[in-house]
Automatic annotation (TrEMBL):
Coiled-coil intervals: none
The protein, known as: Xylose transport system permease protein XylH
GO terms, molecular function: transmembrane transporter activity
Annotated signal sequence range: none
Pfam family name, one: BPD_transp_2
Length: 401
């Protein structure tokens, strides 16, 4: 990962070290360029309020999977089974509601439990038996897809409860009404809260780093980042608020991003994940319980894949045996585009989310332009290749910078 470092004396005699992450800014810049490009090419259709809502709901599954997948990749593994787990959990959840007559929330609990059991199964073989994750999850891809076909002998299960469907397609009630031509007040308030919290967290983090004499980014750059983020969040919130209201799935996604960003950055588990991906032998010699860390990485991935399966079934209004096809590829691509290193040890939740949004904007923009699905696959493949090539080249040049 490329960085720029410099030093200058501070007012209190300390040296202020500047540390700028070019990779992260590059990903954000790429997303902005792609959005602007498709906004122009589609004649302004990309950023219509309905399309913003659809962008969030249609890509919720890959955002959820990318959060789990980036943790797997940071630790030096890969998971090829998540698409099949999505299908299996969707089937089990639908059966629980329609055939077992459980309330929708009870079926959701069952679905998440199934995902956890899948993670326990795969984590056991990877962590304690020592079979490579690639082989275990490849077997899981076949196994869980087969179980889905066994469960859904009729092909589909439809007519799911409205409360369940709302998870994937619903919005919060417009409790405070609308303003200025029909914009939802709840959505706008939520956006304001987000940007205030983001600004406070950035200033607090900088203050702690300065107190510990750690590298920090320049003050002007920090302010610029906060301003750009604020403008972007408020702009998209303004567009989204003109549709129906705040999507329920967006609240779920925001909670996941905050939770897993905290886990990776602020917990012992997160530090151990990075340590294992950076140098497994050194992590073992430092006393990291690598087997248990690996085990819980895949349990976590199973739960998140289950959540993605629940969201997918809710949005579709039913369970189908073909659900989740190629979802694992979307999640892996999002993580790598978002800055995860192919060798492990590098990656962030925010980066994976940005990578997923790049994939989502590409899908929607190309669809609006009526580009053939075959060419869409070609374009997304090239984007993935370029992202990984940039990571490899930047690492080679890093020591000379």
């Amino acid at each position: 990962m490329s960085t720029i470092s410099a030093q200058k004396p501070g007012s209190d005699g300390r040296r202020l070290r500047l540390n700028v992450d070019l990779r992260q800014f590059g990903i954000l810049g790429a997303l902005a360029i792609i959005v602007i490009l498709f906004q122009v090419l589609t004649g302004g259709k990309l950023l219509l309020p309905a399309n913003i809502n659809n962008l969030i709901q249609q890509n919720a599954y890959v955002l959820i999977l990318a959060v789990g997948m980036v943790i797997v990749i940071i630790a030096g593994h890969i998971d090829l089974s998540v698409g099949s787990v999505v299908a299996l959990v969707g089937a089990v959840t639908a059966i629980a509601m329609v055939q077992w007559e459980l309330p929708w929330w009870g079926a959701v609990v069952v679905g998440l439990a199934v995902g956890a059991l899948v993670g326990v199964w795969q984590g056991f073989w990877i962590a304690f038996v020592g079979i490579p994750a690639f082989i275990v999850t490849l077997a899981g891809m076949l196994l869980f897809r087969g179980l889905t076909l066994v469960l859904l002998t009729g092909g589909t299960i439809n007519a799911l409860p409205a409360g369940f469907v709302a998870i994937g397609k619903g919005t919060l009630p417009q409790s405070f009404g609308t303003m200025l031509g029909g914009h939802d007040v709840v959505t706008l308030i939520a956006a304001i809260v987000v940007v205030i919290a983001f600004a406070l967290s950035q200033f607090r983090s900088r203050r702690k780093q300065l107190a510990l004499d750690l590298p920090v980014e320049p003050g002007m750059l920090l302010v610029a980042k906060i301003v750009v983020t604020t403008v972007a969040v408020l702009f998209f919130a303004w567009l989204l608020s003109a549709h129906r209201g705040l999507p329920i799935i967006l609240i779920i996604l925001a909670a996941l991003i905050l939770l897993y960003t905290f886990v990776l950055k602020r917990t012992v588990f997160g530090r151990h994940v990075y340590a294992m991906g950076g140098n497994l032998f050194a992590a073992q010699m430092s006393g990291v319980k690598t087997r248990w860390v690996n085990f819980f990485i895949f349990v976590n991935m199973g739960v998140l894949a289950a959540l993605a399966g629940i969201v997918t079934a809710a949005r579709a209004g039913g369970a189908v045996a073909s659900a989740g096809n190629s979802y694992e590829l979307d999640a892996i691509a999002a993580a790598f585009i978002g800055g995860a290193a192919v060798t492990g040890g590098v990656g962030t939740v925010i980066g994976a989310v940005i990578g997923a949004m790049i994939m989502g904007v590409l899908n929607m923009g190309l669809s609006i332009l009526s580009v053939d699905s075959a060419w869409q696959q070609v374009i997304k493949g090239l984007v993935l290749l370029l992202a990984v090539a940039f990571d490899v080249v930047s690492k080679r040049r890093g020591p000379r910078m």
